[in-house]
Prior knowledge:
Blueprint: E1 25-26, H1 38-46, H2 61-71, E2 78-81, H3 83-95, E3 102-105, H4 112-118, E4 123-126, E5 146-149, H5 161-169, E6 176-179, E7 200-205, E8 218-221, H6 224-234, H7 244-255, H8 257-280, E9 283-284, E10 292-297, H9 302-311, E11 314-315, E12 328-331, H10 335-348
Helix pairs in contact: 1-7, 2-7, 3-6
The structure holds 4'-deoxy-4'-aminopyridoxal-5'-phosphate.
The site of 4'-deoxy-4'-aminopyridoxal-5'-phosphate (PMP) has 12 residues, from α3.
Amino acid sequence: MSWENNVRKVVPYTPGDQPNKAGMIKINTNECPYPPAPGVQKVLAETDISKYRLYPDTTAAPLAKALADYYGVSEKQVFVGVGSDDVISMSFLTFFHGDKPILFPDITYSFYDVWAELYRIPYEMIPLHADFRIHAEDYKRPNGGIIFPNPNAPTGVFEDLSVVEEIIASNPDVVVMVDEAYVDFGGQSALPLLNKYDNLLIVRTFSKSRAMAGMRIGFAIGNEKLIKYLSDVKFSFNSYTMNLPSILCGVEAVRNDAYFKETLRKVIATRERVKKELKELGFTFPDSYTNFIFATHKSRSAKDIYEALKVRDIYVRHFNKPEIDNYLRISIGTDEEMDTVLAFLRDYLK
Length: 350
Ligand code: PMP
């Protein structure tokens, strides 16, 4: 007998590397290559530090209000957390408390099974179909809840809203979470379905399209009852999750919609150009609706390319998972960064 018998043992999630080298090209964790809205800098510079003496607003109310106004929902329909990881983790704890297994795709955000294990939630991973597609049919079996990203990660594949709706409509007795971490870059949001389905929870993040991964801001939108249950669990866990600078900077980012749209336009334009060039270099990939491309090469192994890029301080993501270990997930950087990457690949693949 030892104290170790009483330990909650888990296999943690492996985040992408966070190297920090001068001159590196870091396109491995789907961050935005452009800075946050300029007003964010101003907010940080001008906030009176005596404000930090006090605890922050427990519900991040100013940010919840800004998001509610932006998305045309009530404040009571918005839950704000420390990145969408925090929001999804709280949601697992809140909504996935049944006996039946929760369902999610086998190739998807690799944190889902980690949370399920952590909270001892039974789960079933549903295989994707050809071309990494999600089929609604597969989600019509007894379950305790469902989560999937749309567009999916790391594949970049987007499912039509009709597929999403079919899954939600077929599962009225459980909560269906749609993780829309990448939806700003393409595809359709499930937001228009909110009025129709009370079991739908949409999760979003400021980490990609709003260029604020370092601020840790995520949020969920759902009907008031779902948000109330989620808040009750959060308040049973940690009342003060959101720090004051994140709340204030988040509000500022939402306010500057022109900057947000311009950032999206730039990332999407670069992505479309990189798609063409990667094809010419012998890569294939499912069409991406995100800020990354999930590519495989016709003759060279993904692992070899990954290693070769790394030697040149170009970091992309490679997953050691059999079904996808011949793919690289390449985040979209600036045009200049992508030109360097493409020039290297052109030379390497000669
Ligand atoms: N969902 C998906 C699909 C993601 O790829 C990520 C980013 N790793 C997250 C959620 C979490 O992002 P964050 O916690 O930075 O909001």
